TrEMBL record:
Residue numbers spanned by region Disordered: 143-271, 287-308
KW Signal (keyword) present: yes
Source species: Cerrena zonata
Protein name, entry field: Carbohydrate-binding module family 19 domain-containing protein
Compositional bias segments (type: Acidic residues): 245-255
Biased composition annotated in UniProt, kind: Low complexity: 189-242, 287-306
The UniProt record lists the keyword Membrane: no
TM spans (from-to): none
Keywords, comma-separated and alphabetical: Signal
Leader sequence segment: 1-20
Amino acid sequence: MVQLALKCSALLAFVLLAQGAPVYKRISQNTPDAKTAWEAACNAAGGAEKCNPIAVNAIGTLLAAADPCAQQNSADQMIDLAKQLNNDPNMIKLAQIFAQQPRNSPDSLSVPYCQQAPKNQELNGLFQCQFQGVNPKSFFKNTPVGQAGTIPLGQNKPLDPAGSCPAHPDGPIPDGQQLVDIVGGAAGAGNSNNGSGNASVSAPSASSSAADATGTDSASSTTVSAPAATAAPPSTATATVSDDPSADPTDDCSDDPTATEAPSAAMTVPATASATEVSVAGAAAASATTDATAPTATTGSGSSGDFHAQNAKDAQALNVKFASLTKDSSCNEGDEACIDGGFAQCVGGKFVNMGCGPSTQCFALPLVNKPGTTITCDTPAGANAKITASGGQGDVTGKGN
């Protein structure tokens, strides 16, 4: 059997080479890096708890499975908030740069351009650069240049040079790099000639105060924050998200060696985590349904005057259920959970694990200002402390009670 498999693989490899089947290379980046400068500027401008949900939502818009206009919509949200904060120029410039950051490509093909006008005029004429490793003549699903989505909105011919953007008119940027690190704050001019503007802004200082590590929630949103030991902008509970298509045309001798597979729809999972309470502008509404295999955050059953202890019990119950889940557990679209220590959401009937930041892991924890729970990334010690502070007995799962 082993010899047969080896012969099969060798024969198929020969056929692939003989027929010139394409070999795809995944081109990606550490997506959380793309929002760091803007979030720091937002905190410096006094955005406080409003900054993190927008920043976290922005991460997923750079994934290959994101809608072509999701990145622009996210930049619009950034500018909307900047205008609420005295038209903060740093936030606006960094939102313009974010709108031009290349998106991931799972198959070495260029990423389509948004064909809708932005909400804010500051984004007019701006579009994303491409990474250097993509094929400049072929877009998603091998769409040739000149077809819908291969030319930025407002332009009537292919870009020259291909892969360029207003902030980087010389061409595409090195694979995996952040545009903000390359241009140093120069957002470029959005115009039909794809020229570069000379407006620039220094990177904002990350010296704003930290969010309360005991839980960050407001009337409209619950943000996911990793507790900070020293004063710093709220650190988001996100990690590099993989959108690897895992397309392997050689996994069976019966496969057509010339066939290509569309990348799987691994999409963003906003790491703002109360399934029944969180409201993040621009993010898809999380499913509020629960079942035995895929529990999500719930609102506490205690009265409005005595909900803390009940919140702790509800969180402990969720953590017990999460411990029994795996990435292969059945789930409903939008369900959120902690899987193998990482924050996960159900996408396409399967959990997608985003992981957590360094030294942290995923827990269900009690809210502090109202009945309910949230799913967040924290240190084990910090999570246990929050359970205790809310009147819970034992650790995050109730052990030691």
